[in-house]
Design brief:
This protein is mainly beta. Helix content is 13%, strand content 61%.
């Protein structure tokens, strides 16, 4: 049993309670004493993070044009497409103002579709979701004295998402056209994330960190293709939303 499969159920529950969790973190930020901020050393830094997506999902919503109908024999995608554990990572530059850090990052995420969850007795599911992320974020150190510093924060930005998701009818006859439905393409969307973690100062210039992240990308729109049981192709629009829960480890190096 892998670490991802062991932790996934717990993180699905954490995702459902993410709003309450981060509301508590926001209250903690307000409670931090401004005077303590002067005890942290300011400076520019570079940051690198890498980790795993514990749980990620794509939520497609079919959008029909005026007068457009879908035959009952046309295969469909579920409202929530679950993914297996995947990779996430980012590189960036930032500035520590003394307990308040602001940074810009570029990142990459990828995860395979949970083929078992997408498949049925009639259809075989497969696919992968990849994204290139650009954003800015801010973090507050909740404890500013000593080497161990818990922190909270979040960011906003844009994400270029690449979808390749399909359901294909199971048929033992190779090379024949089969009923199917799929989404393949790329689009830019609005991305935001909320983070919580802790860092440890190895030296005055170098800190290592571990953080958990909930992220969401919205505003995505893409065309999909479906072939019904009469082998009639049809094009339709989808609105899509991505969500993920990740764990990352990183290093910050001050100049």
């Amino acid at each position: 049993m892998t670490l991802v499969s062991t932790l996934a159920p717990a993180y699905r529950g954490a995702r459902r309670n993410s709003a309450a969790l981060f509301a508590g973190f926001a209250a903690a930020i307000v409670a931090v004493s401004p005077a303590a901020a002067q005890k942290a050393e300011p400076g520019a830094y570079a940051v690198a993070r890498t980790g795993v997506q514990i749980d990620s999902d794509v939520k497609p919503t079919q959008v029909l044009a005026k007068g457009q109908t879908v035959a009952k024999t046309t295969p469909t995608l579920p409202k929530n497409i679950d993914h297996d554990g995947g990779f996430t990572g980012e590189l960036g530059m930032g500035y520590d103002f003394g307990g308040l850090r602001v940074e810009g990052t570029a990142g990459y995420d990828t995860a395979k579709v949970n083929a078992k969850a997408l498949s049925t007795k009639t259809y075989s599911g497969a696919g992968r979701t990849k994204s290139f992320d650009l954003g800015v974020a801010a973090y507050v150190d909740l404890v500013r004295e000593g080497p161990l510093k818990p922190f909270v924060g979040g960011g906003i930005g844009a994400s270029r998402v690449d979808y390749s998701i399909s359901r294909l009818m199971i048929d033992k006859t190779p090379g024949t056209r089969k009923p199917m439905v799929g989404i393949m393409g790329k689009d830019w969307g609005f991305r935001w994330h909320l983070d919580a973690g802790a860092s440890y100062d190895v030296t005055p210039q170098t800190a290592i960190e571990v953080l958990g992240r909930y992220s969401q990308t919205t505003g995505l729109r893409m065309k999909g293709t479906a072939i019904d049981e009469n082998l009639v192709p049809q094009t339709m629009d989808y609105k899509l939303k991505n969500t993920s829960v990740s764990i990352m480890a990183g290093i910050r190096q001050k100049f």
